[in-house]
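Sample intake sheet
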Amino acid sequence: MNGRQKLYIQEVAPRDGFQNEQRFIDTHDKIDFINRLSQSGYAKIEATSFTSPKAIPALKDADMVMHEIERNPDVVYTVLVPNVRGAERALACNVDEVNLVMSASETHNRANLRMTREQSFAQLAEVAGAVRGTGVAVNVSLSTVFGCPMEGDIGTLEVFGLMDRFAQLEVDGITLCDTTGMAYPSQVADIAKQAKAQFPQLELTMHFHNTRGMALANTLAAIDRGVDRFDASLGGLGGCPYAPGASGNVCTEDLVHMLELMGYDTGVDLDRILGISGGLPQLIGHDIPSQILKAGPRLTLHPAPAGTA
């Protein structure tokens, strides 16, 4: 038993989840979805992305969403921004944090962002500079930290080198992302231990995908090395175009269910988020890979079969 150690759960379905959906989610449905999440005990919600509407039409309503949601002062509202123009739009919407994204893999960065890593770093450094002094936090999400589907393993020296360069820009936090579900527990434990030791000033988040069924195990490995912040996506929404057919992010309700059983304090109301998750299939038009939504929590009891003695 781990007592009631506090963990911080960060919901990414409104951005990472919805941007992968073929069906456009109505703006008012997005706003209602985020409003319900805001009352569910999350530490942080990634609400949308201030990317070009041509690049991500699914989130073309970012400005309206951020202006119309009902904010809970206990929740940090973060948004993805790719460049200074996106940052300016986000700042005009009074966001709490901007999230900047690039890949630890050169090949993945070129394929996903159409830039070299050096070009991405220069662009994101410009964004960090534009946000500095505004009171808005800056987080950097590094993709493919635990492996690239085109390059294989990524050297930890490359990962920590990038972390150091962003730390020198005085960013507030870094998220280490398992973009295509290539991470495994002993690898996670090693990287988490080194990251915590080398960058104690950074708010460290882990972002796991369940592509190969190891997201929950990887979470426990990270907790054992002192990590206390985790991204998750309601219903397990999300994915990556470089892992075709794979499941998405670690499922929030599955994660919270496990952690609460183990004695951790996630702050998240499981019954409330199950109620929200239950409406997702109708909202997005397909089934979701949520185990707890299908089976119910562990102590969901059923009547004995007829004729049982």
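Comment: The beta strands are 8-11, 44-49, 76-80, 97-103, 137-143, 173-178, 203-208, 229-232. DSSP finds 13 helices and eight strands in the chain.
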